[in-house]
Amino acid sequence: MDSAFPTLPFASREIIDGHVHNRVDEEYGEGSRHIAALPGDMRIMRCDYEFRRDASGPAVGQDFLKFHYKLNGRNVLRFAGRPDTLLETGRSVIAYHPEGLVKDDCFAAGVREVSLTIACRRSAILDLLRTSSDELPKPARRYFDCADSDFLCDELPLSLRMKEALGDLDRPGFSPWLQQIHVEAKVLDLICLSFHELTSRDQFIGPSFSLKARDIDMLHAVRTALESDFRQPITIPALCRQFATNRSKLSEGFRILFGETIFEYIHKLRMEHARLLLTDTDSPLSEIADQVGYSRQSSFSTAFRQHHGFRPLDVRRNSPLRATRMPGSA
């Protein structure tokens, strides 16, 4: 079952209820990986681990089409005789890994990997679509018409809808007898969203809107500035003045280049910072809410739960800081 995925280095392997479970040896890191089979020769791999030293895991291609969604992490895909591919937080990938092609997944020490990967046969996708590859848009068709020896890969944004589907997988809210249907539905949802992202992105970049090299540099500078100033009130007109650009170039360019709007990105930064404060400090919730731009704690709690899928109090109760204080309490 796990032949579709790279070997996880420094990890044990066991079969539990028909699923493959890998756990990283405590000497080399922490965390685990779980692989499950789904109907239609599909496999799903969930990862949450971190290594204490640089590590790599080899994989030999088994003719699978893969969909990767990286919620957190930074790793390099290395193929013999091909350029390295860097995958970072907030990105997704569609890739065809042909039979026999060897690759290495390379992970840096101290970087937590949280991701989900789906592997399936190309024929299974065509069966689901009930169509032939000739009828597909060109960006998607190339994955089905390529030679069996061709490696193909497209890096895409991890869209808000993808994040919502990934979150739904971790909080199903259904009775056990419905869980399997729920998982299969969300897996198909993710595949659909990936192909939608792949085939629709070219619609936004045409003769009427193009990004020059200086525009791309400007947009990267905007994103860097947002990462420093996300706690402050931010408006589009103010950013336009600061970076000497117009609203269309700023707003549309940012969305095209990074796969999310400026305010979606600011919201993500604020919610991630709030989670860090909940984990690493004992600041009151009201103070944390204020630090990330919310005057009302209730509004902050609602936004936090919608983004992360759990409440601020759940993070606080499970934080390492709270755990270290437990023995002295009571």
CATH architecture annotation name of the largest domain: Sandwich
Annotation, overall tally of beta strands: 12
Cα radius of gyration in angstroms:
21 Å
**How much helical structure, as a percent, in the residues?**
40-55%
Poorly predicted parts: 204-208, 326-330
CATH superfamily of the largest domain, please?
Jelly Rolls
Give an overview of the whole structure:
The protein has 330 residues and is of the alpha+beta class. The protein folds into two domains: 2-204, Jelly Rolls (Sandwich); 213-321, Homeodomain-like (Arc Repressor Mutant, subunit A), CATH 1.10.10.60. It is 42% helix and 25% strand. It is built from twelve helices and twelve strands. The strands form two sheets. It has an eight-stranded antiparallel sheet. A four-stranded antiparallel sheet has the order 5-10-7-8, with no helix packed on it. Strand 2 (19-24) and strand 3 (29-38) form a beta hairpin. The radius of gyration is 21 Å and the shape is globular.
Provide the descriptors you would attach to this structure in a database record.
2 domains, 4-stranded antiparallel sheet, 330 residues, 8-stranded antiparallel sheet
